[in-house]
Every structure is written in structure tokens, then in C-alpha cells.
Design goal:
It is built from one helix and nine strands, in the order E-E-E-E-E-E-H-E-E-E. By secondary structure, it is mainly β. The chain is 5% helix and 59% strand. The protein has an eight-stranded antiparallel beta barrel.
């Protein structure tokens, strides 16, 4: 018997609108930043809106590797509330990461930005989100983060 191969299927896209960055400063392990999530949308096999609360809590390490942990929720078009915890990392050439920090455009293909979202909901139609592993491929823009969510099969 062989181990099953890993495959992924695209499921939906989360576009999270973001607010002004709050910086807590150097904490000894890096610079702590908090980025409010102020809305957005979900499109694809699930559609709805990102609720206007939550945040992405980041640590920027001395080598510019960014550890990310976002906590927020979205509401589906049929009224289900889905809580999201999304952990990941963003890394790339220092000059491009600094451009992103200043809100300047950078080709997303030049930045490694991957996440592992976990979902929680009490709505029966979306319980399957809690029964699978998902990975995200993300892009940071000046006013939003776009995450293509793929189900690991």
C-alpha cells in the first residue's frame, strides 16, 4: 500500500480590506504589527462578506521573514457566520518587502506568501470547512489582502 498523494482544489477567494497598520515596536523577537481587518468579500464556492472586525497580528523578524496570524470572520450569503484563524508567512527580497510596507505595488509572484486557514462554524451547510485542511496562496496590496483558498484532498 502506498501513501495517498497530496492534491489541492481551489475553493474560494477571501479579499480582506485592511486598515492602518499599528506598530507595537521591537519586542525582542521582531517588530510586532497589528493590521485591522475592516471588511471585504468572499467569492467562489462560498460567497459572502468579510465582517468589519478582526486583525492580522504580525512579527517581522530581523531577516524580514514575516510570521502572520489573522483572526476574523465572514458571513455567507445565506447567513452563516464562519470564524477564521489564518496562520502563515510572507518572505521575499528585502527591497520588495519594504515597498509593500510603504504601500507600494509589488508583483505578488515575487513574494512567497502562504497561509493555513482553519475555519469554525455551527452552520450545518459549512461544517465541511472544519473537516478538511486548507492552504492559501496570498497577495498583499496597499488596501487589501487576497487569499485563494485551496482544499487539500
Amino acid at each position: 500500500m502506498t501513501t495517498p498523494t497530496l492534491e489541492t482544489n481551489y475553493v474560494f477567494t477571501i479579499t480582506a480590506k485592511i486598515g492602518e497598520v499599528v506598530t507595537a515596536g521591537e519586542t525582542g523577537i521582531g517588530v510586532r504589527r497589528i493590521i485591522p481587518i475592516i471588511g471585504g468579500e468572499v467569492t467562489g464556492a462560498i460567497s459572502g462578506k468579510v465582517l468589519p472586525f478582526g486583525a492580522d497580528f504580525q512579527t517581522i523578524r530581523p531577516n524580514e521573514l514575516i510570521d502572520l496570524e489573522a483572526k476574523y470572520a465572514f458571513e455567507t450569503d445565506d447567513g452563516a457566520i464562519v470564524y477564521v484563524e489564518n496562520k502563515g508567512m510572507r518572505f521575499g527580497p528585502v527591497e520588495l518587502l519594504q515597498k509593500l510596507k510603504r504601500g507600494e505595488p509589488v508583483d505578488p509572484k515575487l513574494i512567497y506568501f502562504r497561509t493555513v486557514p482553519r475555519f469554525e462554524t455551527g452552520h450545518e451547510n459549512y461544517r465541511w470547512l472544519m473537516q478538511h485542511i486548507f492552504v492559501g496562496s496570498a497577495a498583499r496590496h496597499a488596501d487589501r489582502v487576497v487569499i485563494d483558498v485551496h482544499q487539500v484532498m
